[in-house]
């Protein structure tokens, strides 16, 4: 059994390394087409203060969503404190780009070790967190499309998909019925489907209007902060396309990357962002560094924060369950 787990770990690492290399080669190839000098010149235009603003807006997003995690954890009945929940939430970012979204599982593991709650009981927290993200991103994308000056109509199907998924994920009976249907179709893994059905029914704990409203507000503000950071970045590089169009491109690319199933949306998010920017008339020598920088100050910044917090979370979870 240990050998299987070790081989799986190496396989996942190899897959992740290959994915990172693929994205890197793709961006490097595009940079060579436009000329390295132009891309590097655009990046050199950014001052440390501007980078700090972009990172601060990303940090605001993570803190607001971490506060939402705490709110949902309290509603679920978990006996955790604010700093404890923030430690779990941000520490989980260390595994954001691992196959199978291991960041979600490690959060559940920390909760089990620190509180004694089994994963089956705490799993609805992760599911609700993902669902509210989909809901607010769908709402933000729809609002951006409505306020943007034309274009981006191709984002409407992604908006509809985000809303539909969020609705299914937050309706306990509907989700439980889909889990049951899945079991009848595949007829395997009864324990896994049983736990999934139990987690789906536990979502009824979150059907509390003030909690849902506050959770959606926190998520909306958080993702808007990162969309605004993308707008500022384009302005720093001399490509003014308007606030709401920039927000729409950022949110659409993030959702599109997630739909590919790749860890962290890698590859899909960058491709969507580059395509939409060039369609909006942004020169490739600006679109390319803009895409690279925003991914560094959002996805990779969150991973860096996660790596800093991860050892603290592991140390805290190593003690006896409280």
UniProtKB/TrEMBL annotation:
Tagged with keyword NAD: no
Keyword set includes Lipid metabolism: no
Ranges annotated as spanning the membrane: 46-64, 134-155, 206-225, 231-259, 294-313
Intracellular or extracellular location(s): Cell membrane
Keyword vocabulary terms for this entry: Cell membrane, Membrane, Transmembrane, Transmembrane helix
Topological relation to the membrane, as annotated: Multi-pass membrane protein
Alphabetical list of InterPro entries matching this protein: L-PG_synthase/AglD (IPR022791)
Superkingdom per UniProt: Bacteria
Any Gene Ontology CC annotation: plasma membrane
PANTHER family documented for this protein: UPF0104 MEMBRANE PROTEIN MJ1595
Name the UniProt record assigns to this protein: Uncharacterized protein (TIRG00374 family)
